[in-house]
Amino acid sequence: MIGRTLAIIVGLCVLGVSPVRAQEPVAATPIVIGQSYALPSSVMGGTREINVWLPPGYAEGTATYPVLYVLDGGQAQDFHHISGLAQLGTIVGTTRDVIVVGVASVDRRNELALPTEDPELIARYPTQGQSERFRRFLLEEVQPFVEGRFRTSGETVLMGESLAGLFVVETFLKEPQMFDAYVAVSPSLWWDGGRLARQAGAHLRDHSNDPRRLILTLGDEGPEMQAPMDVLTQNLRDFAMPGVTWDFTPRPAESHATIYHGAALDAFRSLYALPSN
């Protein structure tokens, strides 16, 4: 084997071809996408990961920007996915510039699910049901941090998928004034036997007519997901409010695992469409 290798090298030299040398190590530089902050939280009892992506040119200007708050927004979660869509829209000029704030989850059923009385769910997820506390964290600590540190326009959107989508719907129903628009992708409305969807009408009765928007979408995910979505949309039709705009887009070609990218892209194009000339 060694003799054959030497013969190949000699042959290359005779032909005037230099044998390939091992390349010197090439220095690597980090790719920086946004900034990550360890935000002290008295509500949550410790520091929490908050990730922020700013539009290109933010540092050189004085403009203010809308803010998209992304649940499950950790660096190992959906922050890079959604901030990538924002960057793409900026680069190709298809959507307005927006600040993306990723709020990382630690214990998703604790932070994103409302309390349940189902003994099976309680036994399986003993820490579940603290969505109200997580909502206070967003309202009292995350939003003031973002608004105090960055040039925001006052226009806000909350986006989430799956259990985070459940949290989005719950926040829209219970604290609608917190955000201007809500995007719930494949919301886990099955939680607690679909109780949130059934109670939607009672919450909607208390809504003001302040302008706000709700975007709902669901893939081909079976009756456990579809049935409570049907209940929710029926309640939205029954308790129509002049200030509330909502739409539901079925995505039968998508599953729970594949729906988020296309749905988030469509939400960007709808919520952050460039003004027409």
TrEMBL record:
Keywords: Hydrolase, Signal. InterPro entries: AB_hydrolase_fold, Esterase-like, Siderophore_Hydrolase_D. It holds the Pfam family Esterase. GO terms for molecular function: hydrolase activity. SUPFAM superfamilies: alpha/beta-Hydrolases. Belongs to the esterase D family. This is Alpha/beta hydrolase.
